[in-house]
């Protein structure tokens, strides 16, 4: 589907500030996610489980400038706490050990970079765009991009 990321001028004008990232969002659709997971080297069974899941993402500000993002599915929960621009250690759902950094590129765009700390591991970039009623997520590994829509609960 090519329509996921096409919006009218009114929808673009309705984008929110970074504080409006705060909330709970349910995954409703994705494009090219199996190819993205393959590019990471994720096993067939884990790919199928992930593709069948309905992730819920909750974003909170725990203190001024300190953020928490919790992703929950029926088989996996991930919680990361971060400060903008401060790298931290993270183990991803697929088992990669990464140095992860979050940066607000704009008030409505959050960039998450995961740099693998083990030789031969793959780096990824996640781009989170906040709108009044949804989060749009692009996940990028090498030359493969997947796109996701999460609706605000």
Structure description:
The chain is mostly beta strands and 153 residues long. It has helices at residues 9-13, 33-40, 44-52; strands spanning 23-31, 56-63, 66-72, 77-83, 88-91, 97-106, 109-116, 124-130, 134-141, 144-152. Strands 4-3-2-1-10-9-8-7-6-5 form a 10-stranded antiparallel β-sheet. A hairpin with a 5-residue loop joins strand 5 (88-91) and strand 6. Helix 2 (33-40) packs antiparallel against helix 3. It is globular, with a radius of gyration of 15 Å.
SSE ordering: HEHHEEEEEEEEE
Please provide the count of β strands. Answer: 10
Low-confidence stretches: 5-17
**Average predicted local confidence, pLDDT:** 89
Query: How much helical structure, as a percent, in the residues?
Result: 10-25%
Strand order of the largest sheet: 4-3-2-1-10-9-8-7-6-5
Report the portion of residues in β strands. Answer: over 45%
Task: Let me know the largest β-sheet.
Answer: 10 strands, antiparallel
Quickly give the structural class.
mainly beta
Alpha-carbon Rg, integer: 15 Å
What is the 3D form? globular
Number of helices: 3
End-to-end Cα distance: 23 Å
